[in-house]
Amino acid sequence: MKEEIKDILSAQAERGGGSVLYDELLSRHSTIAIGGTAAVWYAPSCPEELSEISKSLREHGARVIAIGNGSNTLMPGEGLDAVMVSLAGDYFNHAAYDELGQVTVGAGKKLSSFISDCSSMGLSGMEGLAGIPGTVGGALFVNAGYKSVISDRLLRVKIIDVLGRIRKVEKDDIIFGYREASFDRNAIIIEAAFHLDKAPPGDIRKRMESFFLEKMRVQPLEQKTLGCVFKNPPAGGESGARLIEMAGMKKRRVGGAVVSEKHANFIVNDGGATSGDVKELIRVVRDGVKEKFGVELELEIEILTGEGYVGERFPRPS
Ligand SMILES: Cc1cc2nc3c(=O)[nH]c(=O)nc-3n(C[C@H](O)[C@H](O)[C@H](O)COP(=O)(O)OP(=O)(O)OC[C@H]3O[C@@H](n4cnc5c(N)ncnc54)[C@H](O)[C@@H]3O)c2cc1C
After folding, report:
1. Which member of 22, 51, 73, 307 has the greatest number of CB atoms within 10 A?
2. Which of 64, 65, 67 is the best mutation target for the ligand 1 pocket, counting ligand atoms within 8 Å of the beta carbon and taking the most?
3. Which residue range forms the structural domain that includes residue 277?
4. pTM score, two decimals?
5. Same domain, yes or no, for 245 and 188?
6. Mind listing the pLDDT tens digit for each residue in 20-39?
């Protein structure tokens, strides 16, 4: 990483801005606990700071990558020459709830905390996402969903674009698909507004708990994973998990990476797995399913390498 890039961040931190860590272990920031070091881990204190700093960093040639809870991202095993932007600071964890059911929430807020707050406020519409261990920003970027998808109740987002401008983007101007959304890869989502329905808190909590318990029954939530590795093939056929199971891939292992016994579409880090182990196991599973059923499984997780994200799956407008 160029010294001038580090100087920009150190000067900002000295001015009392966000926090900066150098050579930060990415395994600490991904739910599968795999990853080498990132040159810089930067948590800004407010949007104005992030706007100014991200613009300046990019002008100096830095690669700036937004990251949430790392629950859908396989981090690179090698060193990553980039500035990872985390919205873990207080500002990006705020939420404001109004009487009519409009909610504005910081993109760094964990979904679990957001859903729980909504249920206490008697606001329904988010409980279908119970058990997804991501942030609001990460969930929007991949249009995460379980019983419902996060874009269902979205009104608009606030982003910082590649030029450092803070902009509002209405839902109608974003294309959402199955685990994908048309955000520019360089956009950093900083806030989102949703419209929720009023409902008795007890009813919301009951629904939330039943979804969560169902998820716990069928998915290895207690293990180090990234959730479903592959998307389900288009409607009508077997699920990804079923195809993997029928191809005899359950418990298949490469190094410390294993296909979960509980849910065949999950790969778990059984101890000491590397990014290479997971990628190789993905190849083995994909080849096995292709050979047996002629189905080409498409990735649901995101794979970050030293060169950037592998195979962007959506034509992201810049
Ligand atoms: C046990 C388990 C169960 C899961 N169950 C589900 C499920 O039921 N349904 C489901 O859809 N997913 C599920 N997942 C996957 C994952 O939790 C979701 O995709 C989640 O929404 C990812 O959020 P995150 O904050 O962790 O994103 P990250 O992994 O941190 O990031 C995902 C992508 O979004 C980008 N990004 C993150 N934050 C921002 C931001 N603020 N602005 C711009 N880009 C950003 C990153 O660069 C990356 O490309 C599961 C994962 C686990 C481990």
Report:
1. 73
2. 67
3. 220-308
4. 0.96
5. no
6. 999 999 999 999 999 999 99
